[in-house]
Amino acid sequence: MFYDVSLWWILPGLFLAMCATCLFGQYLNRWLRSRRNADEDTAGLDGFVVSGVFGLMALLMGFSFSLAIGRYEERRQDVVNEANAISTMYSRLALLAPAERVPLEADIREYTKIRVTWGSTSGLAAQERLSDQADAVCDRFAARLFAILAAGPKDSRLPTLVGAYNDMSDIAATRHAVRNAHLPGGVTFLLAVFLFGSAGVLGFTIHARGARSMVGSAMVIALLALAYCAILDLDRPARGTFQVPQDEMIRLSHKLGN
């Protein structure tokens, strides 16, 4: 939800829309008070309503933020796992003869370089192009490796090298899947509904009309809008501000001589 819309548009738009909802809540409160006893004291009830609504709001926002952070940590761990898998594959090529090992090592270096670029690139089109390039290099590496293993003796090197290749391929597929995963659209939509509902309740329970109450309400709304946009940003692994660092992959690429 909103994945293709810039947060620089979402944040001010959300803030203004929530302010309008807050003003509508104020207008509705004044209209209802004009139709009943104006001296009726509802401050105590309003306090309970605000506490309940913002308590539910905090619960839902905390749940959504926890999911977004969990996905971020999963993507970060996958970077480490892929670096380890490629490093293991490269080191186990030492089991082969030098003439067989050299072209395979060149493929691994090229593959690692592409994967580093893929992990650091923003934009879905560029990522898909780099992913296709990495798959082509990986397929070439697999064809050479399996040809060597098929022609050689069936000893303990075969399961060792095949297992390392499978791990390297699996973690690449896992990173693709995790990077394309997002929070359920229903969760972000429900959170947006709660944001507007909270802004309306906030305006409805404000009895004072002075600048002080308006500034305080605007500050609360701004904080809620910022928190919501932070959740959306964490859920954008390809375009968001909170990008997973590629330090382990970059370090491995330098270690391999790229």
Describe the 3D structure.
The chain is built from eight helices and no strands. It has about 260 residues and is an all-alpha fold. Helix 2 (about 45-90) packs parallel to helix 7 (about 210-235) and helix 3 (about 100-120) runs antiparallel to helix 4 (about 125-150). It is rod-shaped and about 95 Å long.
Mean pLDDT: 85
Give the uncertain stretches in residue-range form: none
Structural class category: mainly alpha
Radius of gyration, rounded? 27 Å
Our measurement of the CA-to-CA distance between the termini, rounded to an integer number of angstroms, reads 38 Å
The H/E string reads HHHHHHHH
Number of helical elements: 8
Helical content class: over 70%
Please describe the biggest sheet, giving its number of strands, its sense, and whether it closes into a barrel.
Answer: none
> Into which percentage range does the β-strand content fall?
under 5%
Number of strands: 0
Topology:
Elements: H1 7-34, H2 43-92, H3 98-120, H4 124-151, H5 157-179, H6 185-204, H7 211-234, H8 247-255
Helix pairs in contact: 1-6, 1-7, 2-3, 2-5, 2-6, 2-7, 3-4, 3-8, 4-5, 6-7
